[in-house]
Write a structure and sequence with these properties.
CATH topology of the largest domain: Rossmann fold
Radius of gyration: 18 Å
Shape: globular
Number of strands: 13
Structural class: alpha/beta
Strand order of the largest sheet: 3-2-1-4-5-6
Strand content: 25-35%
Length: 259
Amino acid sequence: MNIGIIGTGNIASYLLEQINQNRMASGRITAIFGRNEEAGQRLGEQFEADFYTDLQGFLKEPLDIVVEAATVEAARIYLKNVVADRKDLVVSSVGVFKDAAFLDELKTLAESSGTHIFLPSGAIGGLDVLQSAKAAGGLKRVQITTRKSPASLGLEADEEQVVFEGSAYEAVEKFPKNVNVALVLAIAGIGAEKTIVRIIVDPDVERNSHTIEAEGDFGRMQLQVENNPMPDNPKTSLLAALSILAVLQNKDHALKIGN
């Protein structure tokens, strides 16, 4: 499996190390696309991958799947080109899908191209439960409560306080770099307008945490995840990078676990 990656940041570096160096997936990252030439050339040389600043040159590589590990802005610009070129796609910047019409357009393009779009679970879990619960329309309520340090949101606070409560759509509008998890939860469940998001800042918090609650005909679920950060980037959860790696590891497995 030939893998391409869009982005030259911490997640890209982590995946290159795990896949090309540690052989943690069946395949190699053979091509990197990005705008940071210094970082891209360094990664390309270190992990023996071709670096491109031109998207068309990148897409001419014989890639089986492309991982977007850049930004929401970059994802908006490049994702359609990847799918139109009949390459499977892993989207890290799920916040790009706050525009539901863009998601629908990309899905339609993927269906006509015969390709697949993968949305990793990121820094949370429970998505399989939500998908099962809504299979026959019986998912009634979904809420995620995220607890972070004030500094992670650029705020100052001496005590715990709720800084946001509203829909996932509103949360992504207000905190576009911090609530990817809320949007992937909404896509898996009852939609961005109906999914409730609470964001709490707590000066005593040591790890970001996400508590997911759901109710429906299936019963009730409560799941809490406390995330360790990536070693080289305290703003990104290690689990977010691991979830992308898991997609690549499981993509062609004969045995599929969960839905």
